[in-house]
Write a structure and sequence with these properties.
The chain has about 475 residues and is α/β, with parallel strands linked by helices. The protein is built from 12 helices and 18 strands. The strands form 3 sheets. Strands 1, 2, 3, 4, 5, 6, 7 and 8 form an 8-stranded mixed beta sheet that branches. It has a 7-stranded mixed beta sheet with strand order 11-10-9-12-15-17-18, with helices on both faces. A 3-stranded antiparallel beta sheet has the order 13-14-16, with helices on one face. α6 crosses α7 (about 255-280). InterPro entries: IF-2B-related (IPR000649), IF_2B-like_C (IPR042529), NagB/RpiA_transferase-like (IPR037171), NUDIX_hydrolase-like_dom_sf (IPR015797), NUDIX_hydrolase_dom (IPR000086).
């Protein structure tokens, strides 16, 4: 929590409402060190904050712009959390902190006079005296209850299970953040009880640490069973922690430190893999393209390439294609079309390539993606238009079958007639309808996907 209001305002008996934004980039968050220009907590580290003099949901955007120089176009709101009440008797102040989490497209910031330094750090570096009842020290002196404020917007198993707005790769990184954050807290709890007697209730139990983190890992795997990339990345973190990480001195069981290290490495590796896949796809981003739905990897590939025009199917019922079109419009010529017009566009508009994402790639090379992908690829085959699926190789499933999710029936029909409704969210495109699968490992053939799937199966034995 940070403010710029002078402490003279403390005569007000009502609590002061402030906003605190956590900006996230590549799995780390931005913290800023408060300067002497602010009235409270100079020298302490906090998020991007300020008094909520207007509606908090509006004020937080202004604070980000004023304190970091990042514009709304460079920010994406992930979630707003429940307010946190903070009482500070030392300065006789009461605060109500409104927390927000944003994804930032850039780490390049321009600090205002309210801060002297900034750093991108793992959120677990904030956990201290107010974290889960543990006592200890943070790596930086922070404003009161900064970790508790972050926890209100941090990813959880529940938020991952309920998220219908983001893609599988994005959610897989959030899953690894859940493991990282929990492992970091367990390490801090261990540090707080380092002097406890071995047989006391507060003594460290490495077996307990691993059991707790294994339970979190299994809940993450169950949260989105159809997302191969989430399964693969969680399994790799846990497998590396159980085989490569250092076990506790008292037991052969891997501990929280092993999971923390593996999760941090996994996040960095995942971000790099997604970026590498997008980079390789720029080789086919030329001429007139057609895409659909939302894929962050395809989006980044198009921005990095030089297409003449991009046709985007609206992708009903979620209309993810509209968001794709809007975010590409400033960089290239974009034409939005109804899903039903995709075959017509391919026949009449001189499309040079179809570029789609992939929710999952099956071992035999079939591609699972947003409904409409199969129809688009079949229409492209009729017109001799090449089709490329772009995804990190982590999206290759270890399973031969796929559990296709379905949408709400009311998205199709909400009337009273006795009508059955089918509303599949994803469909499966045959391997022979895909010209190439562009990944961080290069353009893959079906034989390559089976080999990589076998690698990922080895990671499933950790549990």
């Amino acid at each position: 929590m940070t403010t710029a209001r002078d402490t003279a305002d403390a005569t007000n008996d009502e609590p002061d409402h402030v906003v605190t934004a956590f900006l996230r980039n590549r799995g780390e968050i931005l913290v800023c060190k408060r300067s002497d220009a602010v009235g409270t907590y100079p020298g302490a580290w906090g998020g991007v904050s300020g008094f909520a003099e207007d509606e908090p949901d509006e004020q937080v955007w202004r604070e980000i712009d004023e304190e970091t120089g990042l514009t709304a176009d460079e920010m994406s709101l992930v979630r707003a959390g429940r307010p946190v009440s903070v009482s500070d008797p030392e300065i006789d102040r009461e605060w109500v902190v409104h927390p927000y989490l944003f994804d930032a497209a850039s780490r390049e910031i321009d600090l205002s006079e309210e801060h002297t330094e900034a750093a991108w750090i793992p959120p677990t570096a904030l956990a201290g005296d107010d974290a889960a009842g543990a006592s200890g020290t943070t790596e930086r002196e922070t404003v009161p209850k900064l970790w508790a404020t972050y926890e209100r917007v941090a990813p959880t198993v529940r938020s991952i299970a309920a998220d219908d707005d983001h893609g599988a790769a994005w959610l897989s990184i959030r899953a690894m953040e859940v493991l990282r954050d929990r492992a970091g807290l367990l390490l801090r709890e261990r540090a707080a009880t380092a002097d406890a007697e071995p047989d006391s209730e507060s003594a460290v139990d490495p077996d307990g640490e691993w059991d707790e983190l294994a339970a979190v890992g299994n809940r993450l795997l169950e949260s989105r069973p159809s997302m191969a990339v989430l399964r693969n990345r969680v399994n790799q973190v846990m497998a590396e922690a159980s085989t490569d990480g250092e076990a506790s001195a008292e037991t052969d069981t891997p501990d929280a430190g092993s999971v923390l290290e593996a999760a941090v490495d996994g996040i960095e590796r995942a971000v790099a893999a997604d970026a590498d896949a997008a980079g390789r796809a720029t080789e086919v981003v030329t001429g007139r393209l057609l895409t659909l739905s939302w894929s962050g990897t395809v989006h980044d590939a198009i921005l990095a390439g030089e297409p003449d025009r991009v046709f985007v199917a609206a992708s009903q019922p979620g209309r993810e294609g509209v968001a794709t079109a809007e975010t590409l419009a400033d960089a290239t010529a974009v034409t939005l079309c109804p899903d039903a017009a995709v075959a017509h566009v391919l026949a009449e508009e001189g499309i040079d390539a179809v570029l789609v994402g992939a929710d999952t790639i099956l071992p035999d090379g079939r591609v699972v993606n947003k409904t409409g992908t199969r129809a688009a690829t079949l229409a492209a085959a009729r017109e001799d238009v090449p089709v490329y699926a772009v995804a990190a190789s982590d999206k290759i499933s270890t399973r031969e079958t796929v559990n296709l999710e379905s949408g709400d029936r009311t998205d199709v029909y909400d009337g009273d007639a006795r009508i059955d409704v089918t509303n599949p969210t994803f469909d499966v495109t045959p391997a022979d309808c895909v010209t190439g699968i562009v990944t961080d490992r290069g353009i893959l053939e079906p034989a390559d996907t089976e080999r990589i799937a076998a690698e990922f199966r080895e990671n499933e034995t950790w549990s």
